[in-house]
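Exercise 7. Predict the joint structure of the components listed below.
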Amino acid sequence: GENVEQHPSTLSVQEGDSAVIKCTYSDSASNYFPWYKQELGKRPQLIIDIRSNVGEKKDQRIAVTLNKTAKHFSLHITETQPEDSAVYFCAANPLFSGGYNKLIFGAGTRLAVHP
Amino acid sequence: KAGVTQTPRYLIKTRGQQVTLSCSPISGHRSVSWYQQTPGQGLQFLFEYFSETQRNKGNFPGRFSGRQFSNSRSEMNVSTLELGDSALYLCASSSGQGTGETQYFGPGTRLLVL
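Solution:
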């Protein structure tokens, strides 16, 4: 069935380093891949998203890459700052199992940025 | 524009009771999706409503139901509550004009079942 796997589950970096989070999805027809950041006790906030007709998208220190052949997409955060510490979720929109705005989420990555 | 709002923010219920949660989408948004978030299962899709019709459903038992009103506000109901229903229930809204749209989450309702 539909599935999104996310790795690693925890990531610890020093301030200024880069962080990379990877996700794979099972539904080859998925066409939309958002990334959300969730701070403790707060709602998930969209930080960047990418659609299947684009291979890479960048927004300041954040970038996302998509490899449709491998059914794999990644989040890259450069020059990390302590305020980047949060749980990050990847998601995919599985068209084979309903489509519209249904999102299947990865299990999350807890990122800790140490000063 | 005001963001997505959810009421109530916190609820404590006992097993066997039922509960109704409310979600008001961003003005102009016509699609509302509901998700359950737990430490063990993560974020799981419950259902999506558009134009007062459920157009997508996740793998949850029939005790979980929802509806949408003509003003796009949505409610979800959980009947015969079980301990495992304790979770953060999030709703998200989007314009509803297509598929794979940007979704904006509300603050959630934290439900505790005793």
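Discussion. Chain B touches chain A at residues 31, 33, 35, 42-45, 48, 50, 55-58, 90, 92, 94, 96, 99-108 (CB under 8 Å).
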